[in-house]
TrEMBL record:
Source organism of this protein record: Candidatus Magasanikbacteria bacterium RIFCSPHIGHO2_02_FULL_47_14
Domain Transcription elongation factor GreA/GreB N-terminal: start-end pairs: 9-78
Entry-linked SUPFAM superfamilies: FKBP-like, GreA transcript cleavage protein, N-terminal domain
HAMAP family named in the record: GreA_GreB (MF_00105)
Protein name: Transcription elongation factor GreA
Molecular-function annotations in GO: DNA binding; RNA polymerase binding; translation elongation factor activity
Record-annotated Transcription elongation factor GreA/GreB C-terminal domain positions: 85-157
Pfam families, per the entry: GreA_GreB (PF01272), GreA_GreB_N (PF03449)
Family, per entry: Belongs to the GreA/GreB family.
Keyword set, alphabetical order: DNA-binding, Elongation factor, Protein biosynthesis, Transcription, Transcription regulation
Length: 157
């Protein structure tokens, strides 16, 4: 789900993935579900027809996803690699930080692409918000569920 109105920061790849997903939903998924609903209607009593109920639920999900993707694409702001500066952390920056004697690498991305397990953190997350606008050498204190952590920005790419 889209959390807040406003720009949806996306890489070119994610924008393309969403366009492809939208196209597939509109041209393949919806027509297939519509056919299943029509076929189920031909079977008679809809109140006890599990296939009909399942297909209707899938149709509602698909229509909702189409609206969500449409909103994201309308609000999309593409993150351009060429426009990044290596002086200040911004959306699209790859940063190396040190915390508790360990170095970690993060990429600041829009909420749609966040994947903390691969080091992609959302610009809207507490960590992302804390890093944005900071420079190499800056120390940042961030309140996270595990407690108050201190990070030092070692490098910005």
């Amino acid at each position: 789900m889209v959390s807040q109105p406003g720009p949806q920061y996306l890489s070119k790849e994610k924008y393309q993935q969403l366009q492809e997903e939208l196209n597939k939903l509109v041209t393949i998924t919806i027509p297939l579900i519509a056919k299943r609903i029509d076929d189920a209607k031909q079977m008679g009593d809809l109140s006890e027809n599990a296939e009909y109920q399942t297909a209707r639920e899938e149709m509602a999900w698909a229509q909702s996803r189409i609206k969500e993707i449409g909103y994201i694409l309308q609000q999309a702001q593409i993150i351009e690699d060429g426009g990044l500066t290596h002086d200040v952390v911004q959306i699209g920056s790859k940063i190396i930080v040190e915390t508790n004697g360990k170095k970690k690498e993060y990429t600041i991305v829009g909420a749609q692409e966040a994947d903390p397990l691969t080091g992609k953190i959302s610009n809207e997350s507490p960590l992302g918000v804390a890093f944005l606008g900071k420079k190499g050498g800056d120390r940042i204190h961030v309140q996270v569920p595990a407690g108050n952590l201190e990070y030092t920005i070692v490098g910005i790419e």
